[in-house]
Give the backbone structure.
Amino acid sequence: MNDPGMEPLTRPYRDALSRGELLVQRCGACGRDNMYPRHRCPFCYEAGLGWVRASGTGVLHSFAVTRLGAPTGFESETPYALGVVKLAEGVQVLGRLWPDEDGGWSAYRCDARVRFRPASAEEITRRPVPWFAVMP
């Protein structure tokens, strides 16, 4: 069940992903970035959080390719890859990984540089997560 109280909080993030932009929250009081969307800063506990555009570049800390045994609702999407990316802004996000030209993920390695690569607005409406591609 979705928490109706979260929709206003996450709407700017989802709308930005639909436009091909990646946002992170920034605290107006202490100036630190954080992610995922929160009502209060996790560092100074102030409520004045806004949104800023992220650079979209980062380092892949971990990833997994799901080929079998996908969770309910993802069965038709196998194989797919998820990764934890530490953005240049210092925050970590979970996102999908674009497959290589051959349809696999052999170019991906932990500590590889990745960049945000937008998905279609239709895909973001279905699954509102950022997508990343390995940098050459």
Observations:
- The two ends are 40 Å apart (CA to CA).
- The domain at 7-134 is CATH 2.40.50.840 (OB fold (Dihydrolipoamide Acetyltransferase, E2P)).
- The longest helix spans residues 7-18.
